[in-house]
Amino acid sequence: MERASLWDLRKLRGVANYQLGRGVGEALFPESIKITRSPRTGKIKLIFFRQQLLATLRNTDGLFSLNIPGAKRILRKLGDKAPLKVTVKDGYQDFIKSGRNLFAKHVVKADLAIRSQNEVIIVDQKENLAAVGKAVLSGDEMLSFKLGVAVKVRRGVDENN
Q1: Cα Rg of the chain, angstroms
Q2: Per-residue model confidence (pLDDT) at position 81
Q3: pLDDT in tens, 60-109
Q4: Are β-strands 119-123 and 34-37 bridged in parallel, bridged antiparallel, or unpaired?
Q5: What pLDDT does residue 135 have?
Q6: Which domains does the chain have, with CATH numbers?
Q7: CA distances in angstroms from 102 to 63, 93, 111, listed in the order given
Q8: C-alpha to C-alpha distance for 103 and 152, rounded to whole angstroms
Q9: Are residues 29 and 16 in contact, defined by beta-carbon separation less than 8 angstroms?
Q10: Considering all CA atoms of the chain, what is the largest pairwise distance in Å, rounded to the nearest integer?
Q11: Digit-coded pLDDT (tens) for 10-68
């Protein structure tokens, strides 16, 4: 693990702003982050802050897969202005927190900027983090569909790490 250079930090923040929305890069990645590089390619793979994995930089498309500590940072820094957020109905958040997929009929609110395959942050109706995952439907479709998976959950807050 090495400390991120200024160039690395700018690159990571730029990718986060592109993928997740303006201002997210600065909220997600403080100046004291540490990175792990691929031994084969030398490219950045993992981004840590205080020994917690914030995100993984995928080599297939150059975008991030968020982890729970990263989503917590975004919610703490940006609050209700956090982009790409999906709200789950009361009573179903425990399933989502345990890592189960989110179905469209359990979505109460969804950012209309969400597109299929976007990284999303799932919260309960009290704005507490429940999970992170990848959108299967757009934000508009999540609200109008009553059948099918809306978000494939990658990690719930209650899952064993």
Answers
A1: 15
A2: 87
A3: 999 999 999 999 999 999 988 889 999 999 999 899 999 999 999 999 99
A4: unpaired
A5: 97
A6: 2-73 (3.10.450.90), 84-156 (2.30.130.10)
A7: 22, 9, 15
A8: 9
A9: yes
A10: 47
A11: 999 999 999 999 899 999 999 999 999 999 999 999 999 999 999 999 999 999 999 99
Q: In 3-state terms, what secondary structure has residue 16?
A: helix
By CB atoms closer than 10 A (0-12, 13-18, 19+), residue 98 is: middle
Locate 125 and state its tokens.
Answer: 């109706």
* Residues whose CB is less than 8 angstroms from the CB of residue 98 and which lie 6 or more positions away in sequence, other chains included: 156, 158, 159
Q: Tokens representing 18?
A: 């592109």
Q: How far is CA 101 from CA 11, 75, 120, 142, in A?
A: 31, 21, 12, 13
Residue 120 in contact with residue 85, Cβ under 8 Å? yes
